[in-house]
């Protein structure tokens, strides 16, 4: 197979090779809807039609008809008949939209996550997509950053679990023959999730050890699962922009990890080497990016305009270009595009498969599992004969898909009100918008009061509109907008039970919500089946089981705040008045709600941790067990979490690190024993010399319902 591609490469002219490395958006192509407008953008970019004819891939094309037209027109003009790769952002669903990844993280359910990616791949591939720009696996600790909703959260272990699940779901086992799957592109390499101040695209500053320990494992996990592509990040890593960072791409990805798939820049990131201040012009940007390892340049034309001259002047070896082109051709070959450039694309299958009942069923299941019950003081579940007022800007709003759902339609989304209609008679429900997202009028408040005054319970459907998170959607104040806090206050005056359902793309500062209302369900952006999932949960037809995969700060002043932090030399003890210990004068150190937290309609009791031995050697193992009992009145699913603490390391170790978890279903009164296996391998970490080893000494195995509520078993390692 490789041989063929090498033969093909040999037949290509330098111009044709360079054009393969360029990725442009759909509107540049003949055959795209609304074509004929390409002259302007081409002139702006300084490239010719010839480059477009020979380009290697397209960004954002989808829809069987359009994609087939583009491919047909392209092949008609392309001398060697090299098909285009169609790439798009299919992040959490194509048309059937699943919960945003941060919500999926809260499901702790890798099987369903995989299934969601498989469905997304199927819908996208019949619509003509070959590669998805997902999974995004950037570790996140700062909820001000708008893109936390695209990540599965703050934990390296959990992120790695989901990275693998998504890659399996997107790619399956055989991309060549299974045309219902797409190649995955893990992003954004590396550490895009750690911008200073939580401001998108901002500088990332961290030690190499921290990068290795916390930020890289999820990308590595995706690649271990066979992920075909990597996208570079916009940010700098240790002073060098990721898209021109040889150490990250050539040294780490290629040489150390052995990755031989395609590396693509993020949108415009090659040219951005100029404003970053590491390239004086496009020519230098092109040279730096290619030499550092970027194969495909997305949406700027530094390669197209400069590589030929760089080769002809002897400043760059053509073999560098050949390597990149070969990788792209090999991916096309692997996807079966030379045999069938139209691959899975089919207008009939689009009709048949997209948004099928089966797909929506999985979307609902995952939405149910992704919502997290944050508070419940004897109001939930609702009773079907109660009179309920649904109040708030999300009561009848389809903006529940999240900011990364280009192909999804808000019209298809089940609104909160629609969900309620499946549970109780229309005569039991009143609805009022109550406020807009960021403004409120007296009339709106009056309307809300009128709608709610005869109700038995008020459900507040409030949150951030989707534009308030996602790319470029950063906020310095992460409270619910003032207008909606006013609405909550107004409803509180009615002195009725208040249930809040939150739609948002980040952990919020919950003051004004959690202290003012009796129950809070964090729904995130649940996707197409939002209303059905929420109604099932609120009426008790499903029991909430989501657990936070990112801490909720007490206030933005604590950020970054995350569970696997260090103790410091002056940890705060029980005496909160003590001055010379690490603390704030005005707020607690702890987040409002910790990683792993979530309530259920039942309660679970944990026993002490019992260990099969207190001594671990290099090749033995310890079994750590707890008994978990459902002490409530309904069946429920518990996520039993297992953490480890290394009491004294060569470098400071986190207070706890997630090493495993198990989800169990328990009937009322039922007890199950949950056992985790501890091995020496789990105790390894990066030392000051970057060696990855363990140290003899004392450890703790911690097991419990969340990262803050853990029973401890002590053991020691002696190798
Ligand atoms: C985003 C990427 C995305 C790309 C292509 C960029 O702005 O950062 O996540 O894949 O656009 O749409």
From TrEMBL:
SUPFAM superfamilies: (Trans)glycosidases, Beta-D-glucan exohydrolase, C-terminal domain. It comes from the Bacteria. Residues 638-707 form the Fibronectin type III-like domain. Keywords: Glycosidase, Hydrolase, Signal. One of its GO terms (molecular function) is hydrolase activity, acting on glycosyl bonds. It catalyses: Hydrolysis of terminal, non-reducing beta-D-glucosyl residues with release of beta-D-glucose. It holds the Pfam family Fn3-like. Its EC number is 3.2.1.21. Belongs to the glycosyl hydrolase 3 family. This is beta-glucosidase. It comes from Sutcliffiella rhizosphaerae. The lineage of its organism: Bacteria, Bacillati, Bacillota, Bacilli, Bacillales.
